[in-house]
Amino acid sequence: MFLQIKDLAFCYYRSKDYAIKNFNLEIEQGEIISILGESGSGKSTVLRLLSGLETPTSGIIRINNQIMTDDRHFVLPEKRGIGMVFQDYALFPHMTVAENIQFGLKKQTKRDKQQRVDEVLDLVNMAKLKKRYPHELSGGQQQRVALARTLAPKPSLLLLDEPFSNLDADLQIKIRNELKEIIKKTGITSIFVTHDREDSRAIADRIITMRDGAAYEWESICTTRKLEDKRVEVLTP
């Protein structure tokens, strides 16, 4: 099992309620998982806990047989080998496309960096635009650049937070198909959160629905079970 989350719980500072409680999840190498839920369900908090941006109250996160966090360990975000694409893409406006991608490449020669930039630009079909600046790109193009920058360091796990929230409906359909193809080419285990069920169905191998910080697993037989609980829910495909 590539990713294991066991009994994860988290409470924000000065909050009386848990944002995440008894969250359990296992993911195989190369799977694309969607965490589906409404605003406030805890889905984005799970990504922050996985990436190390937040410290869980309790529970265990293990990635590729290495413990990221438990009651005795906490691996810093920059040492987890995780890539994250944010809702607003977070591109540097004063840098070109190529410079944005190269920014995250450390401890490599200039030649190796340039080669890796060209590789990921080809992957996301942006090679011809590498000298442009973010403001000269469409929303879909900016998203592909953000994805390329995240893929460039070859992360072992890819996290995407509402990747289509800034796109109009027509572009959203086009980009999500491209995104799935790109991720499958890389073979990177991926988790993306969304409130849109159609996005989940179009991209994910499995869908995890969340409510009040708890997780449900959606399977191909359209039956979901609440992890580590007795309640059962049926979803219509």
UniProtKB/TrEMBL annotation:
SMART domains, per the entry: AAA
Domain of life, source organism: Bacteria
Cross-referenced SUPFAM superfamilies: P-loop containing nucleoside triphosphate hydrolases
GO function terms (MF aspect): ATP binding
Keywords per UniProt: ATP-binding, Cell membrane, Ion transport, Iron, Iron transport, Membrane, Nucleotide-binding, Transport
The protein's name: ABC transporter ATP-binding protein
Residues covered by the ABC transporter domain: 3-237
Keyword Mitochondrion: no
Ion transport among keywords: yes
Signal peptide: none
PANTHER family: SPERMIDINE/PUTRESCINE IMPORT ATP-BINDING PROTEIN POTA, SPERMIDINE_PUTRESCINE IMPORT ATP-BINDING PROTEIN POTA
